[in-house]
């Protein structure tokens, strides 16, 4: 039997359900059984182009026209060039902790993310549940990264 917990992130509560990409997803469906955070259609990180965070310094919506599969998820990109860069070195562009909220992973659980709540630190992409959580994350990133690294991928169980 799965335990039911509620987590408070940046003023928002996550309990038995969460809003993911505009769709209410049950806690069971959101349970981190995938190594990559995907929406209900199986698309990683809400369809945002992970390469654009590095090349354009902002989240950019990807397109199914420029997609690839990696780690059991579909990844969307804003251009064929970005897709090809990712295919050549996915570990260089994919967000840490499979695109789950880095703050949550540091705290011992998983949570969804939004494209606007992101940080590149030491050449790695980290995503967060909300802009408020991102601010908490940025105040103590190095310690939180060390904790998240210890917890990953164990939090998926």
Protein described:
The protein has 157 residues and is of the alpha+beta class. The chain has one domain (8-156). It is 31% helix and 22% strand. It has seven helices and eight strands; from the N terminus they run ββββααββαααββαα. The protein has helices at residues 27-30, 50-55, 80-88, 90-93, 102-107, 131-139, 141-151; strands at 7-9, 12-14, 17-20, 23-26, 63-70, 73-77, 118-121, 124-127. Strands 1-2 form a two-stranded antiparallel sheet. Strand 5 and strand 6 (73-77) form a beta hairpin. The longest helix is centred in the C-terminal third of the chain and has 11 residues, at 141-151. It is globular. It starts with 6 loop residues before the first strand and ends in a 6-residue tail after the last helix. Residues 1-32 have low confidence and may be disordered.
What's the layout of helices and strands?
Layout: E1 7-9, E2 12-14, E3 17-20, E4 23-26, H1 27-30, H2 50-55, E5 63-70, E6 73-77, H3 80-88, H4 90-93, H5 102-107, E7 118-121, E8 124-127, H6 131-139, H7 141-151
Antiparallel strand pairs: 1-2, 3-4, 5-6, 7-8
Globally, the shape reads globular
Q: Which parts are unreliable, with pLDDT below 50 for 5 consecutive residues or more?
A: 1-32
Q: SSE order, as H and E? A: EEEEHHEEHHHEEHH
Largest sheet: number of strands, sense, barrel closure: 2 strands, antiparallel
- Approximate strand percentage: 15-25%
Helix content: 25-40%
Structural class: alpha+beta
Task: Please state how the strands of the largest beta sheet are arranged side by side.
Answer: 1-2
Overall number of domains: 1
Instruction: Give the terminus-to-terminus CA distance.
Output: 13 Å
User: How many separate helices?
Assistant: 7
Number of strands: 8
- Which quaternary structure do these chains form? single chain
- The whole-number mean of residue pLDDT values reads 85
- Backbone CA Rg: 15 Å
């Amino acid at each position: 039997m799965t335990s039911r917990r509620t987590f408070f992130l940046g003023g928002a509560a996550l309990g038995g359900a969460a809003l993911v990409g505009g769709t209410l997803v049950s806690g069971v469906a959101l349970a981190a059984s995938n190594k990559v955070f995907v929406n209900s259609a199986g698309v990683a990180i809400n369809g945002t182009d992970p390469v654009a965070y590095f090349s354009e310094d902002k989240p950019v919506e990807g397109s199914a026209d420029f997609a690839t599969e990696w780690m059991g998820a579909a990844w969307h990109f804003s251009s064929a060039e970005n897709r090809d860069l990712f295919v050549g070195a996915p570990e260089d562009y994919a967000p840490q902790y499979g695109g789950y909220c880095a703050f949550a992973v540091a705290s011992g659980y998983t949570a969804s993310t939004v494209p606007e709540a992101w940080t590149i630190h030491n050449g790695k992409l980290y995503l967060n549940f909300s802009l408020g959580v991102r601010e908490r994350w940025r105040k103590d990133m190095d310690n939180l990264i060390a904790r998240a690294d210890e917890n990953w991928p164990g939090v998926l169980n």
